[in-house]
Amino acid sequence: MARLVLQEPGENCTNTDTAEHLLHNPADDSELQAVLSWFSSHSVGELYTEAIRNSIDYVLDGGKTGRFDLLSPEVHPGERASVGAKLEYEILRIFNLPKTKPLDTLIAEAAVDIKATVGDNWAIPTEAHCQLCICTQIQLKKNRHRSWLVRAHRSWLYRGKGNKDGKRGLAVHAREHWGVPLYDWTALPVNPLRYLTEAQANEVLAERPGQAKRLLKMFEYLEGHVIPRNVILTVGAGKDDPVRRAREARDDAKRAGRILLCGDWVESRDIAAAGGIVLRPGEWLALSTDDVNKQNSVPTSPTEPESGQLF
Fold first, then answer.
1. Domain segments of the chain: what residues?
2. Cβ pair 248, 188 in contact under 8 A
3. With CB atoms 3.0 to 4.6 Å apart as the test, which of 106, 119, 138, 211 could cross-link to 245 if both were Cys?
4. Which residue, among 245, 281, 231, has the nearest Cα to 67 in the 3D structure?
5. pTM reported for the whole predicted model
């Protein structure tokens, strides 16, 4: 296949839908620079990590399905692709941006389309041709993501009519030379259940025995790993109040030589912090009682939740 030769900044973009216009370098694109300036006051990579994680959890719906791995054969390819659609709304919510037409939002008064892929390219819709796009790439096998801001000029898209909706992919050369990274490769948190062996996962996610015993097994196998609330819901998929069952498992865990910490409790957060672990509200952590005693020299039985907390 012949190499795709692209028009470069300084030449005209030949767009059949509108009049021809000049292709600018990103540094000379005032709207692009205004959007970059707006993002400069945000922890973009960190906020995108939260948004992507929320989107993946939404698609997996572990609390109902018991699924925890987006690459599992149980997940339909169409579901994986839908992460991008959910991510759009998560980005709008987390960055407090408006939902607008014809593109997705307005940033610094510039129209911006929000795109994401779990593959290698993005399908740029016709309304976003020659418009600003945030293009996010999620690499599930490597547990990482990155995003660019690029003006998706028609001359920088792959030739042809595109798919049946007229969507076309962004040329790699254009992305690399005339796109601006919003942030570089950033780690995507791994669902702790993915660290289980197949046999362990089958045991933890089985229908029997009850939730409390299966949660105890999970804490045993994943000792030292921070467990998000969503994982507790996944282990108790379809059952009543899995988080309550996790709380009720503390005494049995203690008898087995393990302390269960929950980020909703101040004392738990302090114990975790003493070991260099940040435990946020809703998160759980199992640690060896002996290790906690040596490290903290504090009581190992968590106090009751403070007034107004979830538990």
1. 12-187, 192-296
2. no
3. 211
4. 231
5. 0.85
Q: Give SS3 for 233.
A: helix
192-296 is a CATH 2.30.30.40 domain: no
Q: Are 233 and 243 in contact (CB under 8 A)?
A: yes
**61: Cβ–Cβ under 8 A, 6 or more apart, which residues?**
67
Rounded Cα gap, residues 62 and 134, in angstroms = 28
H helical segments located in 3-142 = 30-39, 44-60, 62-65, 77-81, 83-94
Type of residue found at 31:
E
Residue 131 in contact with residue 111, Cβ under 8 Å? yes
Q: How far apart (Å, rounded) are the C-alpha atoms in residues 289 and 255?
A: 10
Among the CATH numbers 3.40.50.920, 3.40.600.10, 2.60.40.1820, 3.30.70.120, which is that of 12-187? 3.40.600.10
Q: Where are the alpha helices (DSSP H) in the chain?
A: 30-39, 44-60, 62-65, 77-81, 83-94, 172-178, 198-204, 211-221, 229-235, 242-248, 250-255, 266-274, 289-296
The length of the chain is 311
Tell me how far apart the alpha carbons of residues 173 and 179 are, in angstroms, rounded to a whole number: 9
